[in-house]
Amino acid sequence: MDKTIIYIFKFLFLFCIGSEIWAGPSKRKEETIVLKKQIFGFHRSDEETKSIPYLEKYLTLSPSELYFKLIYAKALLYRDDLPVPRNDENIETRINKTKAIQTNYNKASKIFQENVLHLEKVRPRDPNLGRWYYVWAFSEWFSDNKEKSIKLFQKAVKLDYRLTESYYNIASLYESLGQWKDAELYWRKYEKAEKELEEED
């Protein structure tokens, strides 16, 4: 009788532990599905900033999700909740606000660099690869890495000829660097590419 009670107790104990183990992944899967829906909802309505905490939670649960890392970097790039420095503020406040904005752009750049290069390695024919290079180029531009931004825009349009705005942005960057001949060259490339796209349509 005592042995039977012990066996029943052991069985119940193991059953409870097993149930918890099985419930863990199932619960996590449900949570990631809910988070995905919320994230895509925000991005469809152009509310990237609101998706940031959901993306951070999602990436805690699924840290190897390449696509969601890229969406996270894009959300950081387009975030609009960081306070902008004002002329009527004291110098320390302006410096702190500028640092926060710069840190955010640097973080986006770093995430793009790691994951766009990884995407290119694992999926070299991904149809969105050019667009990811294009968005990454903006994060470098906003981080004041203008030369790197130029190279990324060049790569973007090489991967996807429809990204003609890349030429426009390269021309603008060269102008800001005082490289007028290069700027003129890319203004012409932009005009030519736009005409070709119009003819194609």
Provide keyphrases for this structure.
disordered N terminus
- Alpha plus pi helix count: 8
* Share of residues in strands: under 5%
Q: Main sheet?
A: none
Q: What share of the residues lie within helices?
A: over 70%
Terminal residue distance: 85 Å
Number of strands: 0
Identify the overall geometry: globular
Poorly predicted runs of 5 or more residues: 1-23
Q: Give the helices and strands as they follow along the chain.
A: HHHHHHHH
Mean pLDDT figure: 89
Kindly provide the radius of gyration, computed on alpha-carbon positions and rounded to a whole number of angstroms. 25 Å
Helical/strand content category: mainly alpha
Please characterize this protein's 3D structure:
This protein has 201 residues and is mainly α. The protein has helices at residues 2-44, 48-61, 66-77, 91-122, 129-142, 146-159, 165-176, 180-200. The chain has a domain at 28-83 and 90-144. It is built from eight helices and no strands. The N and C termini lie far apart (85 Å). Residues 1-23 have low confidence and may be disordered.
Write the topology of this structure.
Blueprint: H1 2-44, H2 48-61, H3 66-77, H4 91-122, H5 129-142, H6 146-159, H7 165-176, H8 180-200
Helix pairs in contact: 1-2, 2-3, 3-4, 4-5, 5-6, 6-7, 7-8
Short description:
The protein has helices spanning 2-44, 48-61, 66-77, 91-122, 129-142, 146-159, 165-176, 180-200.
